[in-house]
Specification:
With about 325 residues, the protein is of the alpha/beta class. It folds into two domains: about 210 residues, Rossmann fold (3-Layer(aba) Sandwich); about 90 residues. Helix content is about 25%, strand content about 25%. It is built from eight helices and 15 strands. Helix 2 packs parallel to helix 4. The longest helix is centred in the first third of the chain and has 19 residues. The N and C termini lie far apart (about 50 Å). Belongs to the LpxK family. It comes from Pasteurella dagmatis ATCC 43325.
Amino acid sequence: MWLLSPLSLLFWLLSKIRKALFKQGILSSYRPPVPVIVVGNLSVGGNGKTPVVIWLVQQLQQQGIKVGVISRGYGSQAKTYPLLVNSTTDPIEGGDEPVLIAKRTGVPVVISPNRQQSIELLLQIADCDLIISDDGLQHYKLQRDIEIVVMDAERGFGNGFVLPAGPLRELPSRLNSVDFIISNGGKSEAADAVMRLIPRYAVNLKTNEQKLLSEFNNHSISAIAGIGNPQRFFNMLEKMGIQVQYSQAFQDHQHFEPTQFEKLDENRPLFMTEKDAVKCMKFARENWWYVPVEAELEGEKVRSFLQRILQKVQK
């Protein structure tokens, strides 16, 4: 870690200069014609942004707000960008998280490394009152109206160093300038709200049959997870009374092939996250299940924050 600290100092310095250049207008940035909310994080790896995006879209839909979502589409291999993603888009082309967001919310989702192009296409094809950017907190080329940071309560800020000596893209002091901080999985002094991911049932990948998780109590299963914190998924199943006989963690945004599952016990049910399931549908077996989760936010500031977003739209 200490050997990499000079490189971290250089990374921090360059990031600071770049941010200042955008703030002073020396580097140009794009102002969309509708309000933009960025849901991001300070550290690399999964912190729970996608459940927050889905939760936020659903909350705004209940208020009659027409929402569109943009994403960089990390891990996608589309032939051309920007790309409109829907629930039937191949996750290899559209990325697992954008496909999942489109599937769960039904809103238009556009991916591209160029976020301005994403927004321009989104506004061409859909009447949006507001746009949510999945990730992009450090993408200062895109102007935004509201910033939300999601942090993992278990991992926090790691060793407190920025890349490459640590996991941070920006120092924790950046939290002082964002609008809302969500702690995923537990309380944090810095957070405005605590998010809990609530599992209620399992869905069969082949038949879409739903079963309450309680029906799998004391059952022996296998489990895989290709998310930012796989152990969180395995622990969740154990807490629900399900016996995880075998588990395998994959890297985040893992592309799956049938050969990766050949050694699994075919007689034992396989559980996976919903994000992994969108990539396994084509070769799923009859006893493969995914566990969707619903985000629940706790905190006195949640309602007033949603009201603040509505006021932005109504201006």
